[in-house]
Every structure is written in C-alpha cells, then in structure tokens.
Amino acid sequence: MLEVRDLTVRFGGITALDGVSFRVRRGEMAGLIGPNGAGKTTLFNCLTRRHDADSGTIVYEGEELTSVAPHAIARLGIARTFQNLGLFPRLSVRDNVLVGAHHRGRAGFLTAALGLPGVRREERALRADADAVLERLDLARVAGHPASGLPFGTLKRVELARALVGRPRLLLLDEPVNGLNAAEVEEFAGTLGAIRDADDLTVIVVEHHMGFVMGTCERIVCLDFGRKIAEGPPAEIRRDPGVIEAYLGTV
Ligand code: ATP
C-alpha cells in the first residue's frame, strides 16, 4: 500500500530523515519508534504533505505522493492524529469529530446555511456517520459536551474519532497512548485492533510506549538520527543490539 524510498529531509544543518526506505502492506499495523528527534514526526509530515522531502519518493496505492496537493491527502484516504491534541476546546465533541469529515462534503457546512436541500441531505449523512463513529468509540454520551473539561483519555478517543470519520484507508497515529494510564492504554489497544479489523485499515503508529507498540504492531521500523537502524517483527526488534543501544536500553 505504501512505499517510502530513500526519503531525505533537511532543516538547515539538521538531517531529520536520511535515506529512509520501508514498505507497509495493506491491512498491516506498523510501528515507528526511535529516540526523541529521530525523525518520526517529520516522516508523518511528509506522508501528509506538510513537508516536502529534499529527495526520495513516497508511493501510496500506486500514486506518487509528492505530486498530490496537501489538501487532497484526506481525499486519498490518509488521516492522522497529532502528538499534541489539535481539538477545538469550545466546540462540542461531535463538531470536533465532524471537522475530520470536511473533505467528504461537496460544498462544505457553510453553504448548508443557504438551505440547499442536497447540501442539507449531505450534512445529515455526515452527522449520522459522526454519530456512528462516536458510538463505536464509546463517546456518544459526551457528543454534545464541549471538548474542554473532558478527561485526557476521552480527548484521545475524540482525536481518533475525528480521524476515522474521514473513512481513511491509511491511519497515521502520532503517540496515541501518550499520557494514558495502563488501563486506558489496554482499552485503546483493544479498540484500535477491533476497528482495524472491521474497517480493513492500514495503520502506522509512532509511539514511545513500548508495551503498546510491541503488543499491537506486526512490524516495527526503528529510526535514529534520521536513519532506519532496524526493521522487523517485535520479537526481533526487542533483541536488536542497535535498537537496544540507541533506544531501548536494557529490556
Ligand atoms: P519526538 O519523539 O521527540 O517527537 P521525532 O522522532 O518525531 O521526535 P522529529 O520531530 O521528526 O523527531 O525531528 C527530527 C529532527 O528534525 C530533530 O532534530 C528536530 O529538531 C528537527 N526538526 C523537526 N522539525 C523541524 C523544523 N520545522 N525546523 C527545524 N528543525 C526541525
């Protein structure tokens, strides 16, 4: 589904990604790990066209992503969540989730105010979809509640809901369990696994929580100083001397 080839990104004198290559198969849950500053978020930014790479290519479902406009990424079926929650505190949970469906409306929500029947039908359908996603993520109870004031674990699920309402085929999760307690991490892992299976999603997870990564990902890519230092199933990565030295310490 995805092939990253020789990707290099420089910020002035810093090489954030240095010739990184890997593939992700359809339906796979892949992990991207590495110490702070290894280049993980930069890689996500390239996959969503927030950054241009200096060299290298990204081929997604047979299409070269560098030729795709940044605003068209969601239409291609790529959605992401962010390390720092990007929710609107005063908007309700439902409206925050609907933001993730912006690319699915033909004319956008503003024109719904003009009262065109087709647009109103479209908006109703999107709202029904948002409600279905809220239900799946056990957020229906708080759908009308403003995002501010909700527990952090709930907000993490709202972020996931916002990504899912866009009906992605490739889901990029940036530190989805950071800040969650052990029970919430376990619950999130279960929910994500169930959604991945039901929706036939391909997932790439950036995460420092090794229990989560090792337990949920089928294959892991480890970056260090912008270079890929290892790639393989969790059991191999856990034992890889380069990964242990750069990142894991004694495990
Ligand atoms: P973390 O685990 O801390 O989130 P990361 O693996 O996601 O780290 P990146 O955020 O991709 O790492 O950063 C890779 C390198 O690129 C770092 O040295 C960082 O300081 C640098 N970098 C990232 N974005 C920029 C930018 N916009 N301008 C300058 N340097 C940047």
From TrEMBL:
One Gene Ontology term of the molecular function aspect: ATP binding
Location of the ABC transporter domain: 2-250
SUPFAM superfamilies (alphabetical): P-loop containing nucleoside triphosphate hydrolases
Ranges that cross the membrane: none
Keyword Transferase: no
Key words, A-Z: ATP-binding, Nucleotide-binding, Transport
Stored PROSITE patterns: ABC_TRANSPORTER_2
Alphabetical list of Pfam families matching this protein: ABC_tran, BCA_ABC_TP_C
Protein name: ABC transporter ATP-binding protein
Taxonomic source organism: Nonomuraea purpurea
